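Quick one:
INPUT:
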């Protein structure tokens, strides 16, 4: 009876049915073995001592075995286990917010981060944002096609409730048109959302934000709110596995061959037409670009002084200007240059000098098999997601124009430890390039001047600029999220 009681105690300590059976069977085998040997033992005390030691050993093995099992289980099977997710945040829900994002991938990305942040601090439930399907590129991808929606929802559930769709009662309001629909005022601080938006949500139950870009200010925002914007952007918004896996493959292929520079070369036809920048274009090309600009009524600026705009540093650098700049900065001519962009306008003509200066020009279309890109080819935002991922992982990132992707990649690289990003001063550069081309300065003078102008423009820690009343002229929060970075050291 004492022996059976001891077995019960030992087995009861193991909280697993299979392990309990394993231990029980081993103990019973031990019991039979020692019963047979007992007559041959001269001391019962020695027998019980051996039995107790054996039982302790079995119990220790069982515990260690279970721990080892957890340790060797592949992490992919534990990624979404309930124990690894943050606890649900319980709060008194003030209503629901629907969001229609606008713009290209990175413009929408920043807007989504702002909308999640606003929902969290207004204590409202956010419906997974819908992506813009009406922009120039006419990409019909939705959130779930680009971002891992389940990870997005679960990784933030300790802060904000996010649903894939409205509950039935609120959905009825949408059908009957009783919800409130509006674009929030651009560059607003949190008091606007507390004082103006929250009462509207409480009154209507559901509010639909028809735009999401730049709806939250860069500065004058509480630090905890700024840090939450970073959490959403750098941790919750993860690309879906097909995009991430293919992007990882591109990076792997590039890194096996050595370091690589990601060049965000904004010289696609739509970009040149929209900007009205025609440096190096002939009359036929200028006419073609102008016709395209006039064909899109939502491109508001039609008559553009290309030369003035270029002198003011408001034009993307041409491929020729980019080649001169990179060479002047002493970028190794043998480095792989990954073109993180769409098709270059008049590629054969415009890319010749860049190809001559940097022969190892590559892009995703030359690295991958056509069949690998086919699922993404007609989805510009998914193709942009591939370029975003590769640019984050590059040894050097250089944008020829400070658009939304350039801004967000720069900020992400700062967040990852101030990875080298060369932010080109186009206003200085075009002046130097013109002086070099007309013979006013030598190559040595040109190269030295370019280096001096960019000595502090390589993604080092800096204080985000503030321009009171002119948010478009100050540093963008997502370019330099300083509240989420190590503090800037003094001189």
């Amino acid at each position: 009876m004492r022996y059976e009681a001891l077995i019960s105690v030992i087995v009861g300590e193991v909280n697993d049915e299979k392990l309990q059976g394993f231990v029980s069977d081993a103990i019973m085998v031990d019991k039979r073995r020692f019963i047979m040997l007992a007559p041959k033992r001269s001391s019962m005390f020695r027998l019980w001592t051996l039995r107790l030691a054996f039982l302790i050993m079995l119990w220790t093995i069982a515990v260690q075995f279970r721990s080892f099992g957890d340790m060797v289980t592949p992490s992919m099977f534990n990624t979404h286990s309930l124990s690894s997710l943050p606890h649900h945040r319980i709060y008194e829900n003030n209503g629901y917010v629907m969001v229609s994002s606008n713009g290209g991938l990175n413009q929408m990305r920043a807007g989504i981060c702002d909308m999640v942040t606003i929902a969290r601090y207004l204590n409202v439930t956010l419906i997974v944002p819908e992506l813009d399907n009406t922009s120039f590129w006419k990409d019909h991808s939705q959130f779930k096609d680009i971002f891992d929606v389940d990870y997005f929802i679960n990784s933030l559930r300790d802060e904000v409730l996010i649903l894939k769709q409205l509950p039935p009662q609120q959905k009825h309001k949408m059908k009957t048109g009783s919800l409130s629909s509006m674009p929030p005022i651009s560059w607003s601080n949190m008091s606007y959302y507390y004082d103006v938006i929250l009462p509207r949500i409480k009154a209507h139950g559901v509010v639909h934000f028809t735009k999401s870009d730049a709806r939250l200010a860069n500065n004058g925002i509480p630090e905890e709110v700024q840090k939450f914007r970073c959490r959403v952007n750098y941790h919750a918004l993860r690309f879906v596995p097909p995009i991430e896996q293919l992007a990882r493959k591109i990076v792997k292929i590039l890194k096996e061959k050595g370091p690589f520079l990601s060049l965000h070369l904004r010289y696609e036809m739509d970009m040149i037409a929209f900007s009205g920048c025609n440096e190096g274009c002939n009359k036929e090309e200028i006419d073609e670009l102008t016709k395209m600009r006039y064909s899109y009524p939502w491109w508001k600026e039609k008559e553009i002084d290309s030369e003035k705009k270029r002198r003011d540093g408001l034009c993307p650098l041409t491929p020729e200007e980019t080649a001169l700049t990179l060479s002047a900065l002493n970028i190794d001519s043998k480095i792989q240059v990954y073109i993180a962009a769409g098709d270059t306008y008049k590629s054969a003509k415009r890319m010749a000098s860049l190809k001559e200066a940097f022969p190892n020009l590559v892009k995703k279309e030359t690295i991958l098999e056509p069949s690998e890109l086919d699922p993404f080819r007609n989805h510009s935002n998914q193709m942009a997601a591939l370029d975003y991922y590769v640019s984050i992982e590059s040894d050097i990132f250089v944008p020829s124009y400070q658009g939304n992707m350039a801004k967000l990649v720069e900020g992400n690289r700062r967040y990852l430890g101030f990875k080298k990003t060369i932010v080109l001063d186009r206003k200085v550069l075009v002046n130097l390039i013109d002086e070099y081309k007309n013979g006013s300065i030598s190559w040595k003078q040109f190269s030295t001047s370019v280096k001096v102008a960019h000595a502090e423009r390589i993604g080092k820690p800096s204080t985000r600029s503030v321009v009171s009343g002119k948010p478009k002229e100050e540093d963008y929060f997502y370019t330099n999220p300083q509240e989420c970075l190590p503090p800037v050291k003094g001189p």
